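== Fold encoding ==
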Amino acid sequence: MSENKSGNSNNASKVSRWDQHGRQHVVRVQRSGVQRTIRCDTCGWRKGAQFLPWLKAQEHLAEAHQATVDPAAS
């Protein structure tokens, strides 16, 4: 699993995947206390996720955009 923590002050991180056409898709995870909100930059999809937000982000990228190539994997 690849999660890219941005380290900025708003407690945001992101999950990036590429599709078979080489397009990057990003889901951002924002934290507010124990609650996390995940939002897709590509289609605007949003969901609240208290548990496993990065897994839910990966599932959305795979199902909605067929984006399964992890840029951090070698």
Summary: The mean pLDDT is 87. The first strand starts at residue 4 and ends at 5. The radius of gyration is 12 Å. Helices lie at 53-65.
